[in-house]
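Help: read this over?
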Amino acid sequence: MTKPDFSTDAGVAAYRAELRAVARTPRLIGFALVVLGAIAVYASAQAGGAAQTVQWVGYAALAGGWALMLAAIFIRTRHHRRRMREAG
C-alpha cells in the first residue's frame, strides 16, 4: 500500500471509503448492542418480576457495545496513523 493521494477529490473519496471499511463489523455490532441495551434498560420497568435481570442485561449490552465501539475507533486510528507514515 502506498500513502493516500489527497491531491484529487477521487483520492480523498477513496481514502474515506477505505477508512469507513476499517473495523466496520465491530462498530456495527457495538452500535446494535448499545441500542438494544438502551431499550432493555428503558423497558426493564415494564418487565415485572424480571425487571432486575432485564436491567442488568441491558447494562451489560451497553458496556459491551461501547467497548466494541471504542475498540473500533482505536483500530481505525491505528490504521490511519500507519497509512500516513507510509513512504510514498
Summary: Residues 26-85 form one domain. DSSP finds three helices and no strands in the chain. The chain has a mean pLDDT of 93.
